[in-house]
């Protein structure tokens, strides 16, 4: 399995016992601590960092190692225990901390884990700051403190309650509870189970929870895509419930299954949330360039607009803060509502979608049918830097009539669809997303890209 340890904007990810070891985690903690102490961003912030982790068995080991590194640079650690990633962002702001660390490899399989960093605003560091942290880590330029200046670790168990209360505050709890919804929740043995059951109970739902034990032994492949949610669809169908929800292991992504047991697709999660929020709240939405055009249709209906950003949660969150967006997120099932926090949050998605159902009195399948339907295909091709540049140049040539956005690779928008081409920061590949109003149109655009690809490789 020998793979490289990946160090990117949002932290590091690797395979536990191979390239992600306690010594590496401790040094990453030292680097983050050194950065925070020297950073102007910590002014007026407590020199403390929240640490949370998803349910992987390697979580406590890595959390302890990172905490040790932070303490060695004079930073106090607030141990939040086993929590969803969004809870860490919320607690960081709530406790006025200078940053947070989440031990998670999100939707990756069990052997992986990762160390994700957030700054005091609850958002991942921007590129220049992430680069500084990486350089401190690689150069081992740590600033250790003397014995009596070392940080200490305290335990804080308020994350669930704080997070749930913040989510309840943005919806009409009585309206949802009156419906007594029956819900199936699949938390894939990740961090979402306990807190999401608490939220659903507060919303008066009858919950059938599957894979809710946060054991880290994922019962199925953890990414909440159609291929991995067959068991959830079966339970929804068999139990005659109103809706099914699936979370990824750190509970920032959400997928929905309708009352007939059909997997709806992660792109609809943000679209449904936007439908509810934009109808009642004036303001713009934000989404990354790879997100479905459904959100543009919904925004148009409610005289709103969509700000498009480069791919990456931090980019969307930052654009939302700058433009005071009322809703935002990513097409992979990540919904962000700044009233709760600037982090993708499956609990936010669940509460808003239930409120949409309660308020309209419509079934989830009916609500989905009201949103214009698109055909989307996501795939990737191998291409080194030079091949990627040739691919982009050829696409520019072919798609001359398109509206072009170059914030993150190239996105070409046409009347009936769009194509987004972008390179990966970690692998020699180009990611390709094609979406169109009809299957034929989507296939037409895909064929153009495939023909170019054949020519350049
Ligand atoms: Mg995740």
Can you give a write-up of this model?
The chain is of the alpha/beta class and 457 residues long. The protein has three domains: 6-159, Alpha-D-Glucose-1,6-Bisphosphate, subunit A, domain 3 (Alpha-D-Glucose-1,6-Bisphosphate, Chain A, domain 3, 3-Layer(aba) Sandwich); 176-369, Alpha-D-Glucose-1,6-Bisphosphate, subunit A, domain 3 (Alpha-D-Glucose-1,6-Bisphosphate, Chain A, domain 3, 3-Layer(aba) Sandwich), CATH 3.40.120.10; 375-456, Alpha-D-phosphohexomutase, C-terminal domain (TATA-Binding Protein, 2-Layer Sandwich), CATH 3.30.310. The chain is built from 15 helices and 20 strands. The protein has helices at 22-38, 59-72, 85-94, 127-139, 159-168, 173-179, 192-202, 230-239, 267-280, 294-301, 313-323, 346-360, 364-369, 385-398, 439-456, and strands at residues 6-8, 11-15, 46-53, 76-82, 97-103, 112-119, 153-155, 182-186, 206-210, 243-247, 254-257, 285-288, 306-309, 327-330, 334-336, 375-382, 403-405, 410-414, 417-423, 429-436. The strands form four sheets. It has a seven-stranded mixed beta sheet, sandwiched between helices. It has a five-stranded antiparallel beta sheet with strand order 16-20-19-18-17, covered by helices on one side. A four-stranded mixed beta sheet has the order 9-8-10-11, with helices on both faces. Helix 9 runs parallel beside helix 10 (294-301). The chain is globular, with a radius of gyration of 22 Å. The chain starts with 5 loop residues before the first strand and ends with a helix. The mean pLDDT is 95. Magnesium ion binds at residues 106-107, 248, 250, 252-253.
């Amino acid at each position: 399995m020998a793979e490289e340890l990946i160090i990117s904007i949002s932290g590091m990810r690797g395979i536990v016992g191979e390239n992600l070891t306690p010594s590496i985690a401790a040094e990453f903690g030292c680097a983050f601590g050194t950065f925070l102490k020297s950073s102007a961003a910590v002014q007026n912030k407590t020199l403390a960092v929240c640490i949370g982790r998803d349910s992987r068995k390697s979580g406590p080991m890595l959390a302890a190692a990172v905490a040790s590194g932070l303490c060695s640079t004079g930073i106090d650690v607030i141990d939040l225990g086993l929590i969803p990633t969004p809870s860490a962002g919320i607690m960081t702001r709530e406790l006025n901390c200078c940053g947070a660390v989440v031990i998670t490899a999100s939707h990756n399989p069990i052997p992986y884990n990762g160390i994700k960093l957030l700054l005091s605003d609850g958002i991942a560091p921007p590129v220049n700051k992430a680069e500084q942290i990486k350089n401190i880590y690689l150069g081992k330029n740590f600033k250790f403190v003397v014995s009596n200046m070392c940080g200490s670790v305290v335990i804080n168990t308020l994350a669930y309650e704080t997070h749930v209360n913040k989510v309840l505050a943005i919806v009409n709890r009585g309206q949802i509870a009156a419906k007594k919804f029956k819900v199936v929740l699949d938390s894939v043995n990740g961090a979402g189970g306990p807190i999401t059951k608490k939220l659903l109970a507060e919303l008066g739902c009858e919950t059938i929870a599957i894979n809710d034990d946060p054991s880290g032994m994922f019962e199925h492949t953890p990414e909440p895509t159609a291929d991995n949610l067959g068991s959830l669809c079966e339970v929804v169908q068999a139990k005659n419930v109103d809706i099914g929800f699936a979370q990824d292991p750190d509970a920032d992504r959400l997928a929905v299954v309708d009352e007939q047991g059909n997997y709806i697709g992660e792109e609809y999660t943000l679209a449904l949330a936007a439908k509810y929020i934009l109808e009642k709240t004036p303001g713009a939405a934000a989404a990354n360039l790879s997100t479905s055009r459904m959100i543009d249709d919904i925004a148009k209906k409610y005289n709103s607009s969509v700000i498009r950003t480069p791919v990456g949660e931090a980019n969307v969150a930052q654009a939302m803060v700058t433009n005071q967006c009322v809703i935002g997120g990513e097409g992979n099932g990540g919904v962000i509502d700044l009233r709760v926090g600037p982090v993708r949050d499956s609990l936010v998605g669940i509460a808003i979608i239930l409120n949409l159902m309660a308020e309209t009195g419509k079934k989830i399948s009916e609500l989905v049918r009201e949103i214009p339907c698109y055909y989307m295909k996501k795939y990737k091709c191998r291409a080194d830097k030079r091949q990627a540049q040739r691919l982009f140049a050829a696409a520019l040539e072919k798609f001359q009539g398109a509206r072009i956005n170059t914030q993150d690779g190239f996105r070409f928008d046409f009347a009936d669809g769009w194509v987004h081409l972008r390179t990966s920061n970690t692998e020699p590949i180009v990611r390709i997303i094609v979406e169109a109003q009809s299957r034929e149109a989507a296939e037409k655009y895909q064929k153009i890209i495939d023909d170019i690809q054949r020519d350049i490789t």
